[in-house]
Every structure is written in C-alpha cells, then in structure tokens.
Design a protein that fits this description.
Helix content of chain A: 55-70%
Number of domains of chain B: 2
Strand order of the largest sheet of chain B: 2-1-3-4
Number of helices of chain A: 17
CATH topology of the largest domain in chain B: Rossmann fold
Largest interface: A-B, 70 and 76 residues
Structural class of chain B: alpha/beta
CATH architecture of the largest domain in chain B: 3-Layer(aba) Sandwich
Radius of gyration of chain A: 27 Å
Helix content of chain B: 40-55%
Largest sheet of chain A: none
Distance between the termini of chain B: 11 Å
Oligomer: heterodimer
Strand content of chain A: under 5%
Shape of chain B: globular
Strand content of chain B: 5-15%
Number of domains of chain A: 2
Number of strands of chain A: 0
Shape of chain A: elongated
Number of strands of chain B: 8
Number of helices of chain B: 11
Structural class of chain A: mainly alpha
Largest sheet of chain B: 4 strands, parallel
Order of helices and strands of chain A: HHHHHHHHHHHHHHHHH
C-alpha cells in the first residue's frame, strides 16, 4: 500500500512539473508574432504523418536513419509497456495484462527485442559522437552543454533499457523458481540470456526485480521532465512542427503586408490601407520572429544535417543554420525567464541579433534552402536569417556596402548593376 | 541576329497578343555571357514558331535581389511596377531565362496582384521536346558526350523542378553524369541570396570553387547550367582551375540551340 502511495505521488508530481514546464515553453512560443498556418488541414496532416510519423526525410542518410528508426519505434512501442507499469504501480498488481495469454507473450517478446535494438543503437550513437567524433556533431555552437545533453540522453536510454531487460530477467528467474507473486507470463527472448548472471536467492531476485521496476518508471518520469530543458524535446514537438510547417514552394518568401500598404500608398495616393499594423520591419530580437520560428527552435534536436549541407558552412564561413536555431531557442528561453523572474516589462538590453547571431553570419547565407531541405522535421532556419536581414536593411540601413550599391542600382537603374535602362534591349542588336 | 525580336509594344500596336512573354531578366539583358543565352532562347522560340515577345526596355528588375537582401520595400516597388506593366499588356504566360525571376514572378507576384502561368526556359524546352516540336538534329552532336548538370537552387529545391533540364539533355543521347550532390541535395554555386553582388564572408574557400571541384570529379566535357548567376560562378571556377579549354560551361538553352543548329 505504501509503495502504491509513493508511486502515485511521484507520478503525479512528475506530470504536474512537466505540465508547468511545457506551458512555459508554449507561452514562450506565443511571444512570437502571428502567422497563419491553419490552412489546408488535410495536407498538413499528411505532411505530419509522412515526415514525423513516417520519418521520410531521415532516409537520406541510411545508417543513422536505420539506427534512429529502432530508437523511435522502440520509444513508441515500449510506451505500451509503460501503461501496464502504471496500472501495476497504482493498483499494486503484477503484470496486469498477463491474461492476454499468447498476445501478452508476443508483446513482451517484441518489447524485449525492441529494447535490445534501442540499447544497441544508443551504444552506436555514443560511439559515433564520442569515439568516431563525426564532423556533423562538432562546430562552434556545439559547446559543452549540447554535447553533454546528447550523451545524457543516450546514456539514460541505455540505462532505462538495461533496467527493463534486467527486470524481466529477474522476473523470469522468479517464475522458474515458482515464486508465489510471479505468475508465469510473458516470453523473454533477450533477457533469458541474463538469467544466469543473476543470483539464485529469491529475496535477492525480488530486490533486483523491484529495484529495476522502480528505476525504470522513475527514470521515465525523470526523463520526461528533462525533455523541456533538452534538445530531446523533438520527440514531442516534431509532430506539431511538421504539421505547421511551410506548404508553399521553398523558393517563395513571404510578402510583408505592412510594406504592401506603404508601397501601395506611395504608388497611389488615394489608397487607404485596410488596417495599419504598427511595429518594426524584420526581426531584431526573438520576439520579433513568428511563433512558427520559435516552435522550430524548440523542436531542433541539433542533429546538424542543416549545417553539414550549408554551402557557407562547408566553405568555412561562420554561418551555421544549427546555431541559428540554437541561438533562437536560447534567446527566447532567456526572455521567458526574464518574464518569470523580473516581470513582463523587464528589458535586458540584449537582442537575438548581435548578442547571439552576428551580422557576419546572416550575410553569409546564399538562401539556397539546403538547410530547410535537410531538416528531418521541417525546421526553417532561412526564414529567421531573412527576418534578421530585413531588420538590418529596413530599420537600420546596415547592409554591406556592396549590397547597398546593388540596392541603389535597382532603385535608380532598375537593374542590380549600373547600366542604363535604355540599354536593356541592346542584346538583340548583336549576334 | 537573323530575325527581329518582337516587343510587346510592337505587338500591341499591331493589335496582337503573344502566346508567351519571354522575361529576359537583368543578367540576360546586360551580362555579356548571359546575353548569348538570351539570344539562344529567342532562337529556340523563333525556330519552333511560337508567337512570343519581350518587354525590351520596359522590362525592369523583378526585385528578387532586393528581397533576398532584406529590402522588402524596394522589392515590392519593383514588383508592383512590373505587375502594372504585365497586366496592362494582358500577359497570361511567361517564360523566364533565370530561375530567380522565375521564382519571384511565379510565387511572390500573385500576392501582389500579378498571377501568370510562369515557366522556366528548361521547362519550355521540355514541353517542346514532349510535343515533338524540338528535337536534337541539324546541329552539333552531343551523342555520348559527358555532361553534368548543376541544379540552380531556385529551380530545384526552391520549386521542385529537377526533371525538365535533364530531359533536355537526355534527348541529346548524351551521357548524363550526376555530381555527388545533385537534385534536392545539390550544392549552391554561391551566388544566391544576393551573394552575387558582394564579396563572400571570410572562410576557407569560395563556394563556387567547392562546386567546380565536385563537377570536375565527374570528368565532364560539358557542365550544363540553367541560371545566369550559376553560369558566372561556374565559369569563374573553371577559369580558376585552368580547364577552360577542355570543359565548356553551357546553359541548357545553348546546348539545345547548338544541337538544333540554331
């Protein structure tokens, strides 16, 4: 009975704490500007099913896709087992679903196989990061925290799977010993090989089985509460992020409605704008970005596929699309913290542009969309870069001199070069 | 040129309307290398007998480089002025010689009041091949020649057009060799996002050098392009590598014109 109460208290506390942190993140995302991403619900749903659920953009890199698939499918399927653990925990039962018989055996066997593949995949992932030191996992933005974050996630998953398998092994040995509480149930294709490693005393086995059971479930609840602080948040946000992702051609950049009003008024003095939306052009800080940009930032799992295909980054420029996303997340989180601690009015004299992302980075972008194409969860770093450029050019007139010259040429000669408009058709005179 | 390139103003004066407007673009109008591509597109249009016209001196920058550089004001000024001209001429269909113009007019003009059926010149060539109006005969033979195609970002990733330029090469019976990074994974030439008009930020290498090295790995006789900016970047790369004699950088329109003896 005491165990049940402890279990309930821990579970409820974990859920409450997670809800509080999740709401903070959603609040932070809502600090962003509005953007309409509610059109074409059917197409959005299909995109989410294909890209997030179906992992369609992962296949470009087959090895990590293969390994990630096992971890992903393991995560989804093994959660069915968590349902049983929850019910057992609350009611003090043991393997409540064992009445399913053959189906139960099949389920437990598949959980075991999946747990084992997750275990193996995570070990390989650790080796790729720490021993092979793949280039994709390094870069200026990959400081000690992002690297530790990745390792904590992988080690936690390995420990959780180990506990799950060890728990089953102890359970199986207790079943074989005919222990009263441990009814014969389940099939154990993996943990059967661990049985011989365990002691033969019934008390010790019960201690191991219970220890692993508690470790497994508390571990899951602790991991749930680690998510809001971690890049691993993608396991949840990949779904809404793909649902609300851009459905238009990647080459199309949004037309700023506020500018349209002003331009129309300039070209036609009789034009009366429908509604005047005041505010600055482009983005200086994270709150000037749209909520979609901010959701993108919380969804990023720092895999670095974007940076590894970025032509600027490949050729040694400072720009890294992954850094753009990480900076945006860090900045909006900082703004959120300021609101919580110092009130909504507090200004910290910092901004996303300059304090996090430098001018050198935004001007190195070729707008080629390689980063957008590469992202397995449809994050768009390019849009953030463009918003920062818009601020630099339209609010501050701070563009590289050659860019200003090009803009001047368009204004004066209707071409980015200094040629006379009268000569535009001269090409037809030659052969 | 052996024929006169018709302008919209002339057609309108004669009370006629073209089937398609050829939007030349700034590079195609002023850049000497790109002018050749422009003339070849006209030769193709003339050859197949499509009724077309250009805007001539009435054409103006689409505003694309201004928009990518962050100057939305200038972009929309350009866009609305152009849309006024295009709508005044009752334009329905446009073919562009540049993927940047193509993307901007196709995707960003409709929201500002300019909706047209816009295609890139490689798509026009593909259509003409499919309709049997354009073959690869009467000119230079590209049979068995090794050609690699560099995907322009605003044609490929930007708008999902990967097959049209390849179709134009397939019909030549040439040997199409793909670079390691091609189609949706293609590497930018380094000119997009208004980079064409500025010095690159400091780094280890120029992007066009990285790209040309990859192109050279395929051991090509020709590097095919579909964008005047890519043309500049790739040609510069080839010059830098001192391979101008062995490897020619040509636009799909130029290759098509050559194959048909135009």
């Amino acid at each position: 009975m005491l165990a049940q109460i402890i279990f309930l208290v821990i579970t409820l506390a974990a859920i409450v704490l997670f809800t509080i942190n999740l709401r903070k993140i959603i609040r932070n995302i809502r600090l962003g500007k509005s953007a309409d991403r509610n059109d074409q619900p059917q197409k959005r749903l299909m995109t989410m099913l294909r890209v997030a659920f179906g992992q369609s953009k992962m296949v470009v890199r087959p090895i990590p896709a293969f390994l990630h698939f096992f971890v992903y499918i393991g995560f989804v399927i093994i959660n069915i087992e968590v349902v049983e653990i929850m019910i057992d925990g609350v009611f003090g039962t043991h393997r409540i679903f064992h009445g399913l018989g053959g189906l139960y055996d099949f389920l437990i066997a598949s959980f075991e196989i999946l747990a084992f593949t997750v275990w193996v995949a995570c070990v390989i992932f650790l080796i790729r990061r720490n021993v092979m030191k793949l280039k994709r996992f390094s870069g200026v933005e990959m400081t000690s925290w992002p690297k530790s974050d990745a390792n904590y996630i992988l080690i936690t998953e390995i420990l959780l799977m180990s506990a799950f398998l060890m728990m089953n092994a102890a359970d199986l040995k207790l079943q074989l010993l005919g222990s009263s509480h441990y009814t014969t149930a389940g099939a154990f294709p993996i943990s059967q090989y661990l049985v011989n490693l365990l002691p033969s005393s019934e008390n010790a086995l019960v201690a191991i089985e219970r220890g692993c059971w508690w470790f497994h479930i508390i571990g899951i609840l602790a991991f749930l509460n680690y998510l809001p602080y971690s890049k691993h948040f993608h396991i949840l946000f990949a779904f809404p992020n793909t649902y609300f992702s851009n459905l238009e051609p990647k080459g199309e950049f949004t037309n700023m409605a506020s500018v349209t009003n002003e331009v129309k008024a300039m070209l036609d003095p009789s034009f009366v704008p429908a509604e005047a939306e005041a505010g600055k052009f482009g983005a200086k800080d994270a709150t000037d970005l749209s909520w979609v940009n901010l959701m993108n930032a919380y969804t990023c799992t720092e895999c670095g596929r974007c940076t590894s295909v970025c032509p600027a980054n490949i050729t040694g420029k400072l720009l890294s699309p992954r850094k753009i996303m990480m900076d945006t997340r860090d900045r909006i989180t900082e703004i959120g913290k300021n609101i919580d601690q110092k009130g909504a009015e507090h200004q910290d004299e910092k901004s996303l542009l300059d304090d996090y992302i430098t001018r050198e980075e935004i001007w190195a972008c070729t707008s080629c969309n390689a980063c957008v194409e590469a992202c397995p969860v449809n994050i768009d770093p390019l849009q953030i870069i463009m918003e920062l450029r818009r601020f630099a050019v339209m609010e501050e007139s701070q563009a590289p001199a050659s860019i200003n010259a090009m803009l001047g040429n368009i204004e004066n000669n209707q071409a980015p070069w200094k040629y006379s408009p009268a000569d535009r058709f001269n090409w037809a005179q030659e052969d | 040129m052996e024929f006169k390139v018709p302008t919209m103003a002339e057609l309108m004066a004669a009370g006629e309307e073209p089937e398609i407007l050829f939007w030349v673009g700034c590079a195609g109008s002023y850049d000497e290398r790109a002018q050749k591509i422009t003339r070849d597109i006209c030769k193709i249009l003339h050859h197949v007998g499509i009724k077309y016209a250009v805007l001539g001196t009435e054409e103006s920058c689409t505003g694309d480089p201004a928009k990518r550089a962050g100057n939305e004001f200038l972009f929309q000024m350009q866009a609305m002025t152009n849309i006024e001209v295009l709508n005044a001429y009752n334009i329905k269909k446009i073919v562009t010689g540049c993927p940047h113009c193509f993307n901007t007019i196709k995707n960003e003009y409709p929201g500002l009041g300019g909706s047209y059926d816009v295609i890139h010149h490689t798509q026009l060539i593909q259509d003409l091949i499919n309709e049997g109006k354009l073959k690869a005969e009467g000119g230079e033979s590209f049979k068995g020649k090794k050609i690699t195609f560099h995907d322009p970002c605003y044609l490929g990733r930007g708008n999902g057009v990967y097959e049209a330029p390849r179709k134009a090469l397939e019909v030549l019976d040439a040997q199409l060799v793909e670079m390691k990074r091609c189609k949706s994974n293609g590497l930018c030439c380094g000119a997009g996002g208004a980079q064409m008009f500025k010095e690159p930020e400091k780094g280890k290498k120029d992007i066009n050098v990285e790209r040309i090295e990859e192109a050279l790995e395929t051991n090509p006789q020709f590097i095919a392009a579909g964008c005047p900016f890519c043309m500049t970047m790739l040609s510069d790369g080839i010059k830098l590598k001192d391979k101008e004699q062995e490897i020619k950088v040509l636009d799909i329109a130029e290759i098509t014109a050559r194959a048909n003896g135009l």
